[in-house]
Design brief:
The protein is of the alpha/beta class. The chain has nine helices and ten strands. Its EC number is 3.-.-.-.
């Protein structure tokens, strides 16, 4: 094994996801199998906050560790994931898009995510009480590196404020929607009080990773067993820190131009591109 640290990022765990979400969904059986693979590989699943502490000069990471994270805040986390994690005594971080939280009798508050069953605030507070770390994923799931000024502040500060009002204590872990975070976004997120920022999912983290640009590995419906086994063994993907690829810089420039012209890249194109 290498010093690679797999931070697995999931979205939905469901047998019957919304069609648009299906490519980012794994079945409950596949999820259980992947947890078994992590254990069989000798990995210890640690809380995200322990990784962040190590990246910021705290106690070193244990050998052969891994981290579980979940993006957006889909309702199936409550029914298909939380009990499995509890039964196995595994920690996890759930990054919530606050504008998409389900409020009975009200539509989503400006969320850019397509319709899907989402967690309610009551469920989020229950998960927090059960020991799931609640993190932020912006207010609307906007592409943050195309925003500046008050719009960016609202996504970062507003998300933090809403989560902290709900759970009653500081919330410090953030994941950039789509992984879009240029240096300006990362600095602004840190000033807003987020002590970590996670990317979307194409590389391993490591003890030398940037806490405001933490690399993750996205688990998709088409992530095969052999691929997942390789990841659990620390193989098959680059290890952070690493320079931002030119392809990603070009994609950002294109999205900014589209946004400036009033025709932002929509979610479906974004998902296909990523």
């Amino acid at each position: 094994m290498t010093d690679a640290v797999p931070l697995f990022v999931y979205h939905s765990v469901s047998e019957h996801p919304e069609p648009w979400l299906a490519p980012l969904t794994v079945t409950p059986q596949a999820f259980a199998d992947q947890l078994d693979i992590i254990t069989s590989a000798g990995r210890t699943v640690i809380p995200l906050r322990r990784l962040v502490a190590a990246l910021r000069g705290g106690p070193p990471l244990p050998a052969h560790c891994a981290v579980l994270t979940f993006d957006d805040g889909y309702a199936d986390f409550y029914w298909a994931v939380a009990q499995v994690l509890s039964d196995r005594d595994l920690p996890a971080t759930l990054y919530v898009t606050t504008g998409a939280v389900h409020v009975p009798g009200r539509p989503a508050d400006g969320s850019l995510l397509p319709p899907a069953p989402m967690l309610s605030w009551r469920q989020i507070t229950n998960l927090d009480a059960l020991g799931i770390e609640i993190g932020g994923h912006s207010r609307t799931h906007a592409q943050l590196d195309t925003l500046r000024g008050r719009r960016l502040d609202d996504e970062l500060d507003g998300c933090k404020r809403e989560l902290e009002d709900a759970v009653g204590h500081p919330v410090t872990a953030f994941a950039y929607p789509g992984g879009y975070a240029d240096p300006v976004v990362r600095r602004r997120a840190h000033r807003a009080g987020w002590t970590s920022g996670a990317l979307a999912g194409s590389a391993f983290s490591s003890a030398g990773d940037d806490p405001m640009r933490i690399a993750r590995l996205r688990v998709r419906a088409d992530t095969g067993r052999e691929t997942f086994q390789a990841w659990a063994q620390g193989l098959g993907a680059p290890v952070a820190p690493y320079p931002e690829p030119l392809r990603d810089k070009g994609w950002r420039a294109y999205r900014r131009i589209r946004a400036a012209l009033g025709h932002p890249v929509d979610g479906e194109i974004e998902r296909q591109a990523k």
